UniProtKB/TrEMBL annotation:
Pfam families: MmgE_PrpD_C, MmgE_PrpD_N. Transmembrane segments: none annotated. Belongs to the PrpD family. Residues 277-440 form the MmgE/PrpD C-terminal domain. This is 2-methylcitrate dehydratase PrpD. SUPFAM superfamilies: 2-methylcitrate dehydratase PrpD. Residues 17-257 form the MmgE/PrpD N-terminal domain. It comes from Cereibacter johrii.
């Protein structure tokens, strides 16, 4: 290849610098009203999920291991009575917010953005006063950072086996806390470097308690990264784009324009979506379609002989557990989810308990569900065919499921989801008061008030 035909080298210098300069210079008033509104919806949804997951055995076990080593008890565990130091509270609240797999999703990358960021911020808010307005600004900043970094390496990074909520989430938490701490550009770049060197999370863990550990650890590590940087603990200033930095080590794809272009005009945080069903997002079209079929079929549900699904290959890659044994495994079984939606009309957290996953009647129908991977089928679509004992068939096509950007949850639907799951933990009256306070976040002088109200009485 001669000199003239050789492609121009990709300019990677300054990616981390550009991102940090934007974070430092951004003012709350620079964020459009509609983006702030989506940020508030994100917070409300996250808070309901964190309280709703508080009594899961995963959280019990995390606390049993954590409590003996916690420092000064400055920060509460949402939905519970325990208090921990800020770093451990960020960890446990991040676990709790994700353990039901009911939290928000940035559909372009399958990142669950709020868990790492909001968990870190709220733990810090009990350690030092943060106004609700500043809290929301920092939350949006953190989500923007993690989703842009996720965009730059997706899907190669995810396909390699990294759980992108953990790997990108740590950057979001560090950025959000760094914004609150008022770090300058150099210290914020150090925080990004400290976050990058702690970026981890493996997809192998899906269906186990460790999946929810990823956003919890990202929250804890991101918070710690910013605190270290504030104390003058240095790192590389090019941790994202350097030849041995995050993007080049953890991914075969590096599209740095996704990080730096359109900062302040293109808002990834405005694209967030909220789950109506408590399981892997790629199952949602199947649950949506099976719930519709249940409504249409009535008593004929009991006559189902076979269920056939045509899905995108990613659905079976992520949620192809044929015979789940636990509730957590059930969240990654399209077969269980289809059977449960048809037989019980359920896609909420109650559909994914150890008891329900092993119900004989559900197992019997699950064993009659088959799935075919078809690359021509969109990731967000599904074709369902139900065959009855008499040989007759009905079909259902779902182009986009409820909860998608095309069919987003309304404020009322987010509120209903909040009340149902958090009411089971702290009681209906307390859940209603907490919901009202969460919607008023921007007006609060001290956002830590939310954490204190979210504790179990």
């Amino acid at each position: 290849m001669n000199q003239q035909s050789r492609p121009a080298p990709v300019q990677t210098e300054g990616v981390t610098e550009t991102l940090c300069r934007w974070i430092v210079s951004l003012k709350g008033a620079d964020i459009p009203a509609e983006v702030r509104r989506e940020g508030l919806r994100t917070f409300v949804n996250w808070l309901g999920c964190a309280v709703g997951g508080a009594r899961h055995e995963t959280v019990d076990r995390a606390l049993a291991a954590t409590l003996p080593f916690s420092g000064p008890a400055t920060s509460g565990v949402l939905g519970r009575t325990e208090r921990l130091d800020a770093l451990h509270a960020a960890l446990v609240n991040g676990i709790s917010s994700h353990v039901l797999d009911y939290d928000d999703t940035h559909l372009k990358t399958i990142i669950h953005p709020a868990g790492p960021v909001a968990s870190a911020l709220l733990a810090l808010a009990e350690r030092q006063p943060i106004s609700g307005e500043d809290f929301l600004t920092a939350l949006i900043v953190g989500i923007e950072v993690e989703c842009r970094i996720g965009n730059s390496v997706y899907p190669a990074h995810y396909d390699r086996g990294w759980h992108i909520t953990g790997t990108a989430g740590v950057f979001g938490a560090a950025a959000a806390v760094g914004k609150i701490l008022g770090l300058d550009e150099t210290r914020l770049a150090w925080a990004m470097g400290l976050a990058a060197t702690q970026s981890s999370g493996l997809r192998e863990m899906f269906g186990t308690m460790t999946k929810s550990f990823h956003p919890g650890r990202a929250a804890q590590n991101g918070l710690f990264s910013a605190l270290l940087a504030e104390a003058g603990y240095d790192s590389s200033l090019r941790a994202i784009e350097a030849p041995r930095g995050f993007a080049n080590v953890l991914s075969e794809k590096q599209d740095y324009a996704e990080i730096t272009e359109g900062l302040g005009t293109r808002w990834e945080s405005a694209l967030n979506s909220y789950k109506p069903f408590a399981c892997g997002i790629v199952i949602h079209p199947t649950i949506d379609g099976c719930l519709q079929l249940r409504e249409e079929l009535g008593a004929r549900v009991g006559e189902i002989e076979a269920v056939e699904l045509r899905t995108h290959p990613l659905v079976l890659e992520l949620t192809g557990k044929r015979s789940p044994r636990t509730g957590l495994e059930g969240k990654f079984s399209v077969y269980h989810s289809a059977a449960c939606a048809l037989l019980r009309g359920d896609g909420a957290p109650t559909a994914f308990t150890d008891e329900v996953v092993n119900l004989p009647e559900l197992v019997a129908l699950r064993d009659r569900v088959t799935a075919v991977a078809d690359p021509a089928c969109h990731e967000a679509a599904v074709d369902i065919a139900v065959t009855f004992a008499d040989g007759s068939r009905v079909t259902k096509h779902v182009e986009r499921a409820i909860g998608s950007r095309e069919r987003p949850l309304s404020d009322a639907e987010i509120e209903h989801k909040f009340r149902v799951q958090s009411g089971l933990v702290i009681g209906d009256e307390a859940a209603a008061r907490l919901l009202d306070l969460a919607w008023r976040l921007e007006s609060l002088a001290d956002s830590g008030e939310v954490a204190r109200m979210a504790m179990a009485g």
